[in-house]
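Narrative of activities, Objective 1.

The group set out to show that a structural description can be obtained from nothing but a protein's sequence at a throughput compatible with the screening campaign. Below is one input-output pair from the validation batch, recorded exactly as produced.
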Amino acid sequence: MAKKNAISGKIEIEISGVKYTGTVELKEAPKAEAKETPKYKAWGVRIDRTVKDPEKAVEYIGEAQGYEPARGATPGSWENHPIFNKIKPCLLVDGNVAIYLNPNNYLQAENGLSVDGLRDYFDTMVEFGKLYYRITQDSRYTYAEVTDDPASLEYGFTDYAYSYKGKVRDKFYIGAYKGVIKNGKLRSMFGELPTGNKTIGAFRTAAQANGTGYEILPFNKLTLLQVLYLIRYKSLDSRAALGKGVTESSEYKATGGADTDGLYSGSQDGTKQIKCHGIEDFWGNVLEWVDGFVTTDKIKIADGNFNDKGDGYEAVADLPETVYGGVITDVHGNNKLGFTPKATDDDMCAGEGYYCNYGSTWTDDTAGLPYFGGFRSGGAGAGAFYCCCGCSASGACPDFGARLAFCGKE
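Output recorded for this entry:
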């Protein structure tokens, strides 16, 4: 008798004139297990690393399929989107929000009342509510996705951008302006020329002088800002998609020039400030030191307890050879290293293809430290992905500034 879910019988075949007979029993193949449908919504992009064109290389995936990307101040399909609605400008003091601001006019509170007389006493910051991102790569594509659903943590998403000294927070705050040092403290204030010509250590000390939880822009938070730019604009050419920013100018610009331009604004005038996620001069004007990232023969990162040498940092990648300065053609593409340059082309002109911006990652016996964004005359080399890591802790020049951040209380 045939077994249940099986077929048996006699078989006869002929091979090269020789007949063979026998019996065979065929069993029902096990059914493939159905893949679990993720219980969250995520919006993302897929970057084809074989495509040089910075627009054509990027396509929307997940919930973002069919969306229109933003261009300049025009939001495309992203207006009033739940992801970007978590971005709120505010006045901050001692790590606490004093007043939320009108996102279209930083001279006003969200109720429309003037705050002009208050802004000397508080730091103008941008609040980022809790989000989760995932950056992955396969043999051809780099993927970047974002969601506001904690269920995504089971599927490789991370909230590392919100981690500070090992503790994950619900929010963090980034200075709306390039930083200025006043009375020994790094501030985010309007109407000031950004402070430059100081070492990363001097800026770090000035930021921490504001109190517990204050730092200069950390690398883990920068990664999320870059993910959000990329998903909103669907382009590796940030200067073309949002605006050139102050990257073709003979002079530095005072802070607050884009106060009434909304959370996103830009133009192809290389002397005017851009805003991205409510952050003025996200690229351009002066470079920004970035903390929590160093290179030696390895790449090391940290979410707090920042220092010049990377003491106590986590080694997350080997760096046997220097990635020399040039147009970024490939990135590490994971949750920890994000858009850290992995390969560059020093024969390609800035803005010509791939990530368009310049980058480098130097290996050395001494620690190399990163700076981001590009400066007032950096041209097409500047932008959302500009990141060079190789400056020593003693480095300082007029084009090197910093941006205040508040990461959370201990």
